[in-house]
Amino acid sequence: MNKTVFISGATSGIGKSCAFIFAKNNYQLILTGRRKDRLEQIKNDLQNEFHVKILTLCFDVTDLKQTQNAIRQIDKTIFPTIDILINNAGLASGLSSIDEGLYEDWNVMIDTNVKGLLHVTRELLPTFKEQGFGHIVNISSTAGKDAYPNGNVYCATKHAVDALSKSMRIDLLNYGIKVTSINPGACETEFSIVRFKGDEQRAKKVYEGFTPLKPEDVADAVFYTATLPKHVCINDLTITCLTQANAHYHIKKVIE
Ligand code: NDP
Ligand code: 8X3
């Protein structure tokens, strides 16, 4: 029987690359996000290429009702198990000093990165407990390990994800559920376009002069942690490009 991976935020970047690598390796997919057109396009592309079963669920993780309705409609006869949950949906909104931050940016980051992750996890836990196995992979960040200038609330939300991964691992040990935190550094996706509210020029500048991670690099790491023997759990994995030492120390150098 094929295993199933549930990916939140599969419409772009790291989530989309995770969908690709798991489909290529014959997993069934449950792909989620708010952009229905993108979900359908990715589903068609992956089904045509890899012939795997794919369910798309279009919902906003910040909305508990939408999250519950979507997850509760998963048909157990088609997806008898959910083996892996990749809590990937997340974002930064704005980059400003704490005294100048906008309440609406703070709310959207806290609601998405912390409450959204909790909503999805809580809804899938009954399935994991019933099965007696499951693997939660939380996409945190180097920003969850250290703060950087003007990162304040985004860093706080990723520190919260870090704490939640540690807590989940303790609370879920008795149920045979693995919990892994993946902490990427700068990775070129739509992340900075979202952070700078559609300003593509400003977003592009973030990655100038060095070679950032590609979303496929992070997806490779996720896939590695998710395909280890049953008794092995990678708790915490930080992955950066060669020119980034931590959340705030980078050098500019292009790697050929
Ligand atoms: P992208 O912007 O490319 O992808 C973000 C994904 O999250 C999209 O699929 C988006 O889907 C989804 N998403 C955002 N908000 C919501 C919501 N409210 N409800 C449902 N889905 C949502 O960025 P990345 O791929 O870079 O980001 C993925 C994760 O990786 C995030 O948690 C981010 O914090 C983390 N990360 C990113 C790094 C980077 O440098 N890029 C580094 C470290 C961590 P849609 O808009 O369709 O809803
Ligand atoms: C996303 C990357 O550099 O803004 O977590 O922390 S960064």
Features:
binds 2-hydroxyethylsulfonic acid; alpha/beta; 8 helices; globular; binds NADPH dihydro-nicotinamide-adenine-dinucleotide phosphate; seven-stranded parallel sheet; Rossmann fold; 256 residues
Structure, explained:
The chain has helices spanning 13-24, 36-50, 64-72, 103-131, 152-172, 191-195, 200-206, 215-226; strands at residues 4-7, 28-33, 54-58, 84-87, 134-139, 177-184, 236-239. The protein has a single domain (4-239), classed as Rossmann fold. The chain is built from eight helices and seven strands; from the N terminus they run βαβαβαβαβαβαααβ. A seven-stranded parallel β-sheet has the order 3-2-1-4-5-6-7, with helices on both faces. It is globular. Helix 2 (36-50) links the parallel strand 2 (28-33) and strand 3. It has 256 residues and is an alpha/beta fold. The structure holds NADPH dihydro-nicotinamide-adenine-dinucleotide phosphate and 2-hydroxyethylsulfonic acid. The site of NADPH dihydro-nicotinamide-adenine-dinucleotide phosphate has 30 residues, from helix 1, helix 4 and helix 6.
